[in-house]
Amino acid sequence: MSVVDFNEWAIADLEIPLKGRTYTVRPPTVEASKKLIAAAIRGEVNLGLVIGEIPPEIQAVLDTIEPGEHPALGEVYEQMHRDGLDPVTIDRVAYYAVFYWSRGKEYADSLAAILWTPRTNAEQRSGEPAPKG
């Protein structure tokens, strides 16, 4: 009888290199996945990617998330707080993880690039009308 090595098919951990250390986020559990999908829906609504309100059944799932709990980051969320990371960075990593687990790496990468890549002054001004001269 041969033994199948399921490690080849298992979902890999999410490795987050940040400020001289690497945080390892395990894939979400089945229970956390419900909350994770609800958080992804809320994120897409909040970012304007989906037009409309958060459906009541989704809000009901979001309401079950305890303070200090983060379904996409698990224990890493609290570890980042203990390590003294600033709240903006933790929030960005949390958003990334939500979309990484719910929509995939490519989606999370592209969204992160759009949201947080620093812009040059010329790029920031590109939407402004030219001065009248």
**Helicity level, as a percent range?**
40-55%
Binned strand content: 5-15%
Low confidence ranges? none
Oligomer: single chain
Shape: globular
Distance between the termini: 83 Å
Taking the sheet with the most strands, its summary is: 2 strands, antiparallel
Structural class: mainly alpha
Mean of residue pLDDT?
A: 89
> What is the β-strand count?
2
What are the secondary-structure elements, in order, as H or E?
EEHHHHHH
Rg over CA atoms, rounded to whole Å, is 18 Å
Helical stretch tally = 6
| Major beta sheet, strand line-up | 1-2
Structural overview:
It is a single chain. The chain has about 130 residues and is mainly alpha-helical. It has a domain of about 90 residues. Helices cover about 50% and strands about 10% of the residues. The chain is built from 6 helices and 2 strands. Strands 1-2 form a two-stranded antiparallel sheet. Strand 1 and strand 2 form a beta hairpin. Helix 1 packs across helix 2 and helix 4 packs antiparallel against helix 5. It is globular. The mean pLDDT is about 90.
Task: Please supply descriptive tags for the structure shown above.
single chain; mainly alpha; two-stranded antiparallel ribbon; 133 residues
Summarize the structure.
With 133 residues, this protein is mainly alpha-helical.
Structural topology:
Layout: E1 14-18, E2 21-25, H1 30-46, H2 56-62, H3 75-82, H4 87-103, H5 105-116, H6 121-125
Helix pairs in contact: 1-2, 1-4, 4-5
